[in-house]
Amino acid sequence: MNTSIIKIAQASNALSQFSPVFASQFHTSSALCRVVSGKYRITKKRDRPLTYEMANPPHYIAHRKSWNSWNTSSLKDGLRKSETAVEDEFIRRFINGTWHGLVCSEVIIKRQFNHIRIAAIMRRAVSPTKMYFLLGYTEELLSTWIQCPVTLELQTVDSYEDVVFKYI
Amino acid sequence: MYSNIIIPRQWSRLACVCRSVASIEGQKLPQTSISSDGISPPPRIPRGSTDILQALAATVGNDPTAAHYKYHDDPFLIPLSNFRKRAYALSAEAGRKAAAWIRDEHANLFTTREWDPPMKMKTPYFNADPQIPAYAPKPFYNDESIVTEIDLKYTIDNALLEDAIKVFELLGGESGLSSELKLSFLQLLCFYNEKEPVAMEWVEERWFAAATRERHATTWKLGGLADKIFTSMEPKTPEAYCAIIQGMAKYFQAERAYALTQEAKEKGIPLSTSVYNSLLGCIGFLKEGVSLRIEALKGLLVEMDEQGLSPNTETLTACLKSLSAWGGGKTLQGVALQTVAEFRQLGIEPSLSAYYYLLCLFCKDQGPKIDILTNIIADLEKRESLEPTEAMDTNFFITAMGVCSNHLQDINLAERLHALLMKNDNYKLVGDAYKESIYYRHFVTVACRFAPFERTTQLLDMLIPNIYVPEPSVMEEILKALELQGAGARLAAAWRELLVFGHAGRARLVERLLRALSCCGREQDDEVKEQMQTVAADILKYGELAEEREEREDRRSPTQKLSARALSDVLELCADARCDAGWAAAAAALRRLRADAAEPAPAARAALAALAPRAARHAHHALAAATVSYLAECGFEEAIPASIETLSVILNRTTEEVGKLLEENKPSLTTSLQPAALEIAQAYHTAKTGTPLRDSGSSTSSDSDSESSDDD
User: Fold this and answer.
1) Which of B55, B350, B487, B626 has the least C-beta neighbours within 10 A?
2) Which residues face A128 on adjacent strands?
């Protein structure tokens, strides 16, 4: 049955050239969202470190853990859906690159009015002075790109070990 | 921003129009208070764009015990010393500057404007409305730039002085400009004296700018661009004259300013009040001698009157500025009071700057005590709000606090002044970081000296360390106050403060602390005493570590060593040590005293004599032996009873028995006694006879013992 679906899908590719209605209707990959996505596999030596956020699979969101992006774009008539998603991804990559090797947690992005608050846990591997430099740099550069006030809300830990919740 | 959620997306353009038309601000409300149905809505109050934010902010007080909000709220990132406060704030600003540099240098990467609410895109890179200039790259001017008069207007409006000069040159100098633009350019040059100011957006840099004392010297650039533009202007308008005269007077080119004023008067060009104000401020540069200067000042005021110009608050400030710059004395003070009285009659109240100059004139450090501050504060307390109007307004509070602390030495007045500063949002008048710290320096000093102790501690707890970090001199005052009140626990905590604030290397302060500790040590509870002894041990350990580091790194400036006096203080403090730290401190202090070959203070001798048997009782035999032999080496007679008593403790005999033992069979002692006891016996003999007990088989006598015997 699967193959026949694929065939139909391929046919719809051809169709899609004529009519955009057929372009994005079919899903040909198997539905794995409940089984593997957002979950970590156990290693043989049981030495993969997980943070609390990683240790809880997606269905625990809003029960044991919370969202990584906070905004209203997914509400009914919410604005800037795709823009928000792309910007959030951009912010995450920017933070991970700028604070290279220092980010110990997920980057949480909260939007309130025209204000973006970015929270993360950093390692104390560089001096506070350098941290302040990076803080000012990140806030200013992100706010010029996204064109709204951006605030970083960081916490620091001594080492990555401090955020490890368990090993699997 | 997202207030129009109900309106579907495709209508958003309409929404945008609607928003501007139907927003609350745009609504027409009835203006009359009487209506037909008896309901009378109050008249509309016009509000500014940030009024609501300010009203909200007014509901939240400041928490003085938390770090300033510019610092990150994390234990690792909260600064606790003056150096760190400055370094962290400036680092963040440096980061912001780096980002701004990238934005300006690579302007082509920052052309996208986010669109909100989303609408159909008209052109690829132009879709946000309105544009927010703060997020856009700043224009960049070099020799190849193509510029128009709009650029010049932009640079002048934003006070970008160097850019303005560049654009001006690119536009072809004096000839190719409209007269209006030329005038505003001239005004810009005159205001800043052709020196680029620090931009408004770099708040921290302005806050931490090194305290530059206002130089009363001619700094006006003669024959500079401003002069050239002024000569090229034809016809010369009154505004041009006003600009150039004020510029010259501001930078103390008094003679040229005065000459231009005469020229303007001859030509019949009207001058403004502010021109005369600036001339009044630099009149002293034209004349020598107080009486001539006062005459010239009065002459200018009369001239103003002839021209039909009415004076304002700045006129008063300028007069007082000149008067205070000419020294002190009864004449000037009399003239100043007369001026203030006359301006009061005109209904002009002195501003904060005027009061600042009055304080400068009346309250000299060496001069007689004159209390004009009480009246000034009473007057300011009556005012509804203190608005900063002139640049020198920020000097008032630090000068007034300085007068409270050094001149009047009055804590009540200082408290009133501080309450005034804390009222409403008067705190903005504190000036910058430098002025703020001087203000608190004066305040804490006067509080430590004259305030009741409860108030002092309350103040210290509130201010330190987040608002103010005491400098060494203030720290000394604080230690003195704590010592006077015998606040032992606080004194013990003071060492931690010294460490955190970066004063631990200052031997003077540390010695002061040890002095205070040993003075108050006797009356404290056991717990506090234990804390104090721990502190003493810490101090000695810190000193040793510092010395080690110095040897390792070969520093230029050697760390200061603690004096023998300070070490004896430690011994005195630890004479009744209970905890290990106390014993360690005593041992370390003794070691260092012996290494320096210094004599302890007289008070410490008794302490040492008491320490030895106590140490023996607590099984610190080596320490007991070292104490006794040190006493003997220094030749104090306390060594004899101390050694007998200590030995009696160690050998568990009565003192008579020990005394007999020591007197009798000397040779057998060396073989029968344990090393520590033997050392004490040796010390006994050193003290008694001046020669140590020496046997050929004695291998236990320590090096210092033999050294001291050589000395004897």
Assistant:
1) B55
2) none
Tens of pLDDT along A134-153? 999 999 999 988 888 999 99
- The reply to whether B370 touches chain A by the CB within 8 Å rule is no
- CB distance B558 to B606 below 8 Å: no
Q: Using a CB–CB cutoff of 8 Å, tell me whether B204 touches chain A.
A: no
* CB-based burial, B514-525: b 16+ in 10 Å, e otherwise: bbbbbbbbeebe
Of A137, A139, A162, which to mutate for an interface test with B (greatest number of B Cβ within 10 Å)?
A137
With CA atoms as reference, the chain A residue closest to B6 would be: A77
Which three-class secondary structure string do you get for B232-276? HCCCCCHHHHHHHHHHHHHCCCHHHHHHHHHHHHHHCCCCCHHHH
Q: Is A133 on the interface with B (CB under 8 A)?
A: yes
pLDDT tier, B5 (very low <50, low <70, confident <90, very high otherwise)? very low
Q: What is the pLDDT of residue A101?
A: 92
Continuous segment of H or E residues that includes residue B185? helix B179-192
Summarised one tens digit per residue, pLDDT across range B27-42 is 454 455 556 778 888 8
CB B509 within 8 A of CB B563: no
- Give the whole-angstrom CA distance, residue B257 versus residue B244: 8
Q: Chain B, 124-163: which have a CB under 8 Å from a chain A CB?
A: 128, 132, 135
Q: What residue has token string 């002092």?
A: B456
Q: Which bin fits A46, alpha (ψ -120 to 50), beta or left (φ > 0)?
A: left
Q: Is the Cβ of B55 closer than 8 Å to some Cβ of chain A?
A: no
CB spacing of B79 vs A128 below 8 angstroms: yes
Looking only at the bridges linking them, the beta strands covering A164-167 and A49-51 are: antiparallel
